[in-house]
Specification:
By secondary structure, the chain is of the alpha/beta class. Helices cover about 20% and strands about 20% of the residues. It has a 7-stranded mixed sheet, with helices on one face. It is globular.
């Protein structure tokens, strides 16, 4: 586990050079000049989202789920409540109005969380995949710590961003391939993913990023919160190491323009190929429709996903799209 300091300090590895993390099979994030080119290009085509796009659903979860089943409730964007083996697990929880270092600026919600914060059951575990503001939300983590004091499992270095703002948070930081026992029925393994992280301008990749393989009584769930596709090697390696996979949770949004986003964010066609590569029985889509982070229309990811599934000859029900507040049980 990372010791408490301003930035992570640890031994050099095949993905940490002593100062910054890197993915040997990935790509570095775009430079500031590329960011400015995207943001201020006069030819930029940024779709206009509706000011508010409410979901007709709102979940009221049970206190616990035991036995051989798993209950997954879609909160919105990349946030999920997963109930299994007597544990209540939140993934990348964001209940804040904005995903930004500021409360007055930055990407704003276009729909409410699918579970009201007050309706949450007792939260035991929180999984945080990396440090970007749409995944590591200090305001939400502070509320969760004050109310539930859950264990927070995250990749190396992200715990430091948490403890700097929330001294009492029970944050535990782990490396790629570490397996963490959550109780006698549930465990999670952090696995490499093609992405990057930062909280500011000068701390790029000073913390690690990861996807998760969650072992449950109903089977293994592969949770990919943010990822580019690349050659697909990351997905095939997860299949080799962790198959069989009962379910994959895969991102389908925040992908335009492709020249800027393709190294770090999959588009729906990439996500369909990722499903084929990892070999999961089924998939759930996320990372779309709540915060406008990129240029595509609010409904474009769902339409593109259906087109990609049809072209691949995969039934649409095998890769389902939920609205916030909808539930799947396996």
């Amino acid at each position: 586990m990372a010791r408490r300091s301003k930035t992570y300090s640890g031994p050099i590895t095949d993905h940490f050079d002593g100062k910054r993390f890197y993915d040997p099979d990935g790509a570095p994030p775009k430079s500031l000049s590329h960011v400015l080119r995207w943001q201020f290009d006069g030819r930029r085509e940024r779709a206009k989202w509706p000011a508010w796009a409410p979901s007709p659903h709102a979940d009221a979860p049970p206190a616990r789920v035991n036995g051989g089943s798993v209950r997954l409730s879609f909160v919105g964007h990349a946030s999920w409540l997963i109930q299994a083996g007597g544990l209540n697990i939140l993934v990348d929880p964001v209940w804040s109005e904005r995903v930004s270092p500021f409360t007055f600026a930055g990407p704003k919600r276009h729909n409410d969380p699918g579970i009201a914060f007050e309706a949450l059951p007792d939260i035991d575990i929180v999984l945080v995949s990396h440090g970007h503001y749409d995944h590591l939300d200090i305001r939400t983590l502070s509320r969760l710590t004050a109310r539930f004091a859950p264990r927070v499992v995250t990749p190396l270095g992200n715990d430091l961003a948490m403890t700097a703002r929330i001294p009492k948070i029970r944050a535990e930081a782990y490396d790629w391939h570490d397996r963490v026992t959550l109780n006698e029925e549930i465990a999670v393994t952090l696995v490499p993913t093609r992405h990057w992280t930062a909280r500011g301008i000068f701390d790029r990749n000073m913390a690690l990023w990861a996807s998760f393989v969650l072992e449950t009584p109903a089977g293994r769930i592969y949770i990919v919160c943010d990822s580019g596709y690349g050659t697909g090697a990351h997905f095939r390696r997860v299949a080799e190491a962790h198959a069989p996979l009962k379910l994959a949770i895969l991102p389908i949004g925040a992908y335009e323009p492709r020249w800027f986003m393709q190294d770090q964010h999959m588009n729906p066609a990439d996500a369909v190929q990722a499903l084929r590569d990892c070999g999961a029985d089924a998939a759930l889509a996320h990372h779309h429709g709540t915060f406008q982070l990129t240029d595509e229309a609010i409904d474009a990811p769902v339409h593109a996903l259906h087109a990609a599934l049809d072209e691949a000859g995969i039934p649409r029900e095998r890769f389902a799209v939920l609205k916030p507040g909808q539930v799947v049980e396996i």
